[in-house]
Amino acid sequence: VLDREFAATEPNTKWVTDITSIPTTQGWLYLAVILDLYSRAVVGWSMSACCNEELAAQALQMAIGRRRPQAGLLHHSDRGCQYTSHAYRHRLEQAGITVSMSRKGNCWDNAVMESFFGSLKEECVGNTIFASHEEARSAIFTYLEVYYNRLRRHSTLGYVSPLIYEKRGRKRDVE
């Protein structure tokens, strides 16, 4: 449904999501993230030692709680079992959210999320193998909530952060 239309003219109309893994000496730490295509802001995220539907559902719950989207929001993901599960699809349906999924084996259909995870791994993780899940959680929390949304500049947004871009958009709405 998204059809690689990665631009949005207002917040909470198009979200993209995916899961990645972060290496630690305690094993993989999985990170699910939801981005708003309007501002590229991280609107929901979750971390767990398990890569399951609950990981994705917690990120969705955070995003819905933070943003309170209107019915009709487009939610785009890959075809991973976390996103195709009955429970996850039911949560989307309950919130009035429209489902969009990448074509089978086509990572370009979710290119914004792939790019986001590339940035996270370059700017936050690097070659680090964190000593523990807790150490990784702390670093990723700081990256997402302190750096990425508030400070990191995006060429797509005219070289401002997601937070600044959204503030400017709200000012235009008031005027």
Kindly describe this structure.
The structure is a single chain. With 175 residues, this protein is an alpha/beta fold. It is built from 6 helices and 5 strands. A 5-stranded mixed beta sheet has the order 3-2-1-4-5, with helices on both faces. A hairpin with a 6-residue loop joins strand 1 and strand 2 (29-36). Helix 4 (111-125) crosses helix 5. The protein is globular and about 45 Å long.
Top keywords for this entry?
175 residues, alpha/beta, 5-stranded mixed beta sheet, 6 helices, globular
What's the gist of this structure?
By secondary structure, the protein is of the alpha/beta class. It contains six helices and five strands, in the order E-E-E-H-E-H-H-E-H-H-H. The chain has helices at residues 53-67, 81-84, 86-94, 111-125, 133-148, 162-174, and strands spanning 14-22, 29-36, 42-48, 74-77, 98-101.
Question: Which SSEs are present, and which pair or pack?
Answer:
Layout: E1 14-22, E2 29-36, E3 42-48, H1 53-67, E4 74-77, H2 81-84, H3 86-94, E5 98-101, H4 111-125, H5 133-148, H6 162-174
Parallel strand pairs: 1-4, 4-5
Antiparallel strand pairs: 1-2, 2-3
Helix pairs in contact: 4-5
Q: For the largest sheet, list the strands in their spatial order.
A: 3-2-1-4-5
Rg is 16 Å
- Proportion of strand residues: 15-25%
What fraction, in percent, of the residue positions are helical?
40-55%
Quickly give the structural class: alpha/beta
SSE string, helix = H, strand = E? EEEHEHHEHHH
Number of helices: 6
Distance from N terminus to C terminus (CA atoms, Å) equals 33 Å
Number of strands: 5
Sheet with the most strands, sense and barrel status: 5 strands, mixed
Unreliable runs = none
Q: So what's the overall shape? A: globular
Q: What's the pLDDT, averaged over the residues? A: 94
